[in-house]
């Protein structure tokens, strides 16, 4: 946030940073509105970090208050720090086509090229940029750790309720009260899913889309039912929005519906089998599988979440 724009020998103007749209790109997208919409998607993907806070509430003291505070804090910190990070980088960007050129020093990886060129222009070599990229790599590692933590706690909760194959194995906890089997299951499946990117980047991107849209839909559904069917019967917890709860709930539902459409838009033109956004197909297929599973089987034996209260 501070080092990159400070070291940079050339800086972009505020007008360029806040008003320029890269309409001259190889993706075939020249509409400023369309570019703006696609830009929102990355921030939506990043802000899903609140998910980890939600799934760790069972291991949080005073969870009814501290859980929501963790969720809101995660979003607030991400917005502030993320905004500063993006500004720091974009003020050091002066030649967008060069950053995206596959023949540059970073092979077209724009962020790495920014870091490298900033230090190379001032000191004659890009070692400092490589170190900065290492910091980003550490951040990505922690992001992966957060994802595995969330996933393992979901696997633990589902298996505790008997909703997963081999449930008895996945809800076991070790002496530190960590669902270690669920953690290793999450790591193994994540690793296998990542391997698909070596053979088919399209398939990998489809899975990422499911993870993003599926997560938001999963959170939007209970909010939707709370502001509709359960509007009069819902009992708020100690952390609530009071009379603004229904209004904020509707805003959340409508926003999720909007970004679900946005995530389904093509990100490259012309649209071919390799550039088609398979998100609607992937999410729709997964939805059909889950609903069919419920109708055919699960509704006959699944009795709902098992509570640990009083044990």
Spell out the blueprint of helices and strands.
Layout: H1 3-7, H2 14-19, H3 32-46, H4 50-55, H5 63-90, H6 96-100, H7 110-123, H8 127-160, H9 167-170, H10 180-199, H11 201-227, H12 245-262, H13 279-301
Helix pairs in contact: 7-8, 8-10, 10-11, 11-12, 11-13
Protein name: Amino acid/polyamine transporter I protein
Task: Give a written overview of the molecule.
This is Amino acid/polyamine transporter I protein. This protein is an all-alpha fold and 311 residues long. Helices cover 66% and strands 0% of the residues. It contains 13 helices and no strands. It has helices at residues 3-7, 14-19, 32-46, 50-55, 63-90, 96-100, 110-123, 127-160, 167-170, 180-199, 201-227, 245-262, 279-301. The radius of gyration is 22 Å and the shape is globular. The relative contact order is 0.09. The mean pLDDT is 86.
Q: Brief overview, please?
A:
This protein is mostly helical and 311 residues long.
**Number of helical stretches of at least 4 residues:** 13
Quote the beta fraction.
under 5%
Biggest pleated-sheet summary = none
Order of helices and strands: HHHHHHHHHHHHH
Rough outline: globular
Termini Cα gap: 48 Å
What oligomeric state is this? single chain
- Nearest-angstrom radius of gyration? 22 Å
Question: What is the SS-derived class?
Answer: mainly alpha
Low-confidence stretches: none
